[in-house]
Each structure stands twice: as structure tokens, then as C-alpha cells.
Amino acid sequence: MNKGMLLGGAFTLAIGVGVGYYLSPKDQRPMTDNAPVDRKPIFYRSPMNPQVTSPVPAKDPTGTDYVAVYADDGASEVAGTGEITPVVQTNIGLSTATATRGILSRPIRTVGRVDYDEEKMFRLHPKVDGWIKEIRVDKTGQAVEADEVLLEIYSPKLVSTQQEYLLALQNYESLKDNQIEDIRRGAIALVSSSRDRLSLLDVPEHQIKALEESGIVRESLHIHSPVAGTVLHIGARQGQYVTPGSELYQIVDLSTVWVYADIYEYELPWVDEGDLVEMTLTSLPGQVLTGTVSYIFPYAESKTRTTKVRIIFENPKMVLRPEMFADITIRSQNTAEVVVVPAEAIIRSGHYNQIFVMKGEGVFEPRRVELGVESGGKIAVLEGIQPGEEVVVSAQFLIDSESSLREATAKMTQMEQPDSPEHDQDHTPELPIDTSNASSGEGAATGHGGDH
User: Fold this and answer.
1) Which of these, 384, 387, 398, lies nearest to 355 by C-alpha position?
2) Which segments of the chain have a pLDDT < 50?
3) What is the reported pTM?
């Protein structure tokens, strides 16, 4: 064996001794001159399972010594509170942050689909049976103006109604100077009812006036567009027989559009009606359109488990086309002022949420907390933390493991200490007698047998 190998072995041995000393429990390290020499262990616990204890020194199945537990171990007002030296804090990378009071806000980013404004969709049906004599707007997607003539329809009922109106006018002309008041009123009422009938059958006002002036019955009458918009569907063609059940046109006003977006469950607390929404589209590079959340649906989609929200956008230049996809950013309203901490400070379990608070130099106390909304790496703490307290934001899982051991030890210490004054006297705990092993002289340990 050469000199280099000897030096390497010695160096490795030195590192091993140092690491073993650092990882060994404080109660198993050599006592210094300043350390108390009169401390007596109450019992010993398994290093692998704190629930397994022994009143005397023992070993677990792997040959590892049990850890001695003293009366002052884990003493604290809060179970699980522990002390960590500055050197150990540096070695495990422990860091803290201050709990502050502030306002949280969160932008919700999702994908939207442009759709028609359902409140501005119109379906046009005739009021009478008849035949399409001439169709003037014959293309889907065509823009129409309000009151624009769409088609001409011939209907025997419309012809007879015009004739009745002309007879009512002639009757009024002959009776308007009658001395009997009831006869004059009857003539006026007949004219009024005949004219109203034409209006109810959608005969345009200009055609009624033309009928009054000329006294000539028209065979076909015009059907006008009720609004300005875009033709989505044409349900009849020239020469076709139609009834009141026939849909002649479907027209939509695209001056405003609806956009539907899907929101996940965890984002719902941040979304409310009236929130500002920003939208960008591939077809409009560099432009950001703004709208508002108008409605949040009261149910979730069964397949995606998301909730739809409806957003209204103005569309004066007709650049928003239904069935387009868009990138949506909902600027949620700010929350009330709350206590916030970094989200990484929270230790989550299946039953509760926990956080570690620095109570003094190197002293850390576990604290159960009630959480609120989370945004931008910050989370609201509704209960359990006060502004200004220092919380652990890294290596807290290592502290949590040690805290759990301390809490279990404290509970066992309370169970092991009898109430009698004799317990304070210095004596060795008696071993329980196991008659089955009496001949062999083997002792038994509480919860787990060990070689003594």
C-alpha cells in the first residue's frame, strides 16, 4: 500500500467521523466541560419509529442504538417547536420571509371563441300564406340596411285586405258629413281597423300610403328587413310557396359580439361580472381589444370541468367574426387587504395546512393556517399568521420532520412520567418480567424488544 492510498484513507475516515458527529443526536455526542453531567434519560426511543420505546438502552433490528430522551426534551408551549443553530440553518439552506399585509390580484389567461350576440339575431317569417314573386337579397353573408326590401310576396289574403281598406275609405267619405254621430264614428272605426289589419300583416307604411293615394290594389307587397345586419340564412327562393311557419331570412347585427371563455375551478374565485377583459387575435396583430365579463354560467361543463363566461365586445369595424379563436386575459378585481406570505412557505397535508414561524433566534414554531386565494407566488393567510412575523420559505420540510419527532417525544414523555414524587429520585427503571424468557435472562422492551 503506497503513501497516497494511506493519506486518502485517512482523509476519508476523517470526513466520515465529522459527518457522523454532525448527524448524531445531541444527547449521544461527547459532553463538553460546560454541558450538564447530571441529566438522566427517562426512556429510549427507536430512531426509526418514535412510537417504539424502551426503558433501558436497546438496539433496533438493524443494530442502531435507541435515542435517549430527557425530561427537558421538546419542552415548549407549542408542541413541535424546535431550535436550530445558525450553522445548521446555513447547511440546510434555510431562509425566511416576512408576512405582510397587501392586496392580491390575478390575471386569468384563457382561450375564447367569438360568437353571435343572441340578443341581436332576427328570424323573419311571413304573416300570411303566399308565393315569392321576386327575391332581391339572395346571398348569405350579404349586408342589409334597416328597412331594406328583401323580397316581394303575392298573397290573396293581402289583396282582399287592401280591398277592404279601400271600401272602408269610400264608406267614410260618404258618411263623414252625416248628422248622426254614431254613423260617423262607425265609419271612422271601420277605416282604422282596416288600416291596422294591413299593418299587422307587415304591409309597409309607404305601401299603405300609396294605396290611399292611388286607390289601386297591388298584387304583391314588399317584405322589409327589420334591422341592419348580415344575412346568415335564406329559407325561400323565387316562386316558392311559403306559410307563416317558413323562415324567410335569418339576420344578425354584428356591431357587438359575444366571446365565450372557459375558466377552471381554481380560477373562479377571481372572476366576477364586470371585470375588464383584454383580447388579442392572430388576424389583428398588435391590437388589444377590450370588453367586459357580462355573465358567468351557473354550471360546469361535464367533459372539461370548466365554467363558461360570456364577454361582450364592441365590433364597429366588423373585424370580429364568429367562430374566431382569441387569446383572453381577464383582469380580475383586486381582493381586500389580507395577510400574504410566499406560497412556498406552506406545508400542505391531506388534513390541514401548516407553516413554520420564527419565534426567536433559531427557534421555529409550527402553526396551522387557514388559506385564501393564491396569485403570483403569494398566498393569502386568513387565520394563523400576523403581519411582521418571519416564516420559513425553504428547507421547511426538514424542519417539519424534526418537529414531528419532537411532538411525538413530548407526548411520550408525558405518558412515561408518573405523578408520584418518588419519580424525581435518581433510580434505574425496572424491567418488565417476561416469564417466557426468564431462563435465558433476556429483557423485554416496551413496544419493541432489543438486545441489551
Assistant:
1) 384
2) 1-36, 74-76, 418, 420-452
3) 0.58
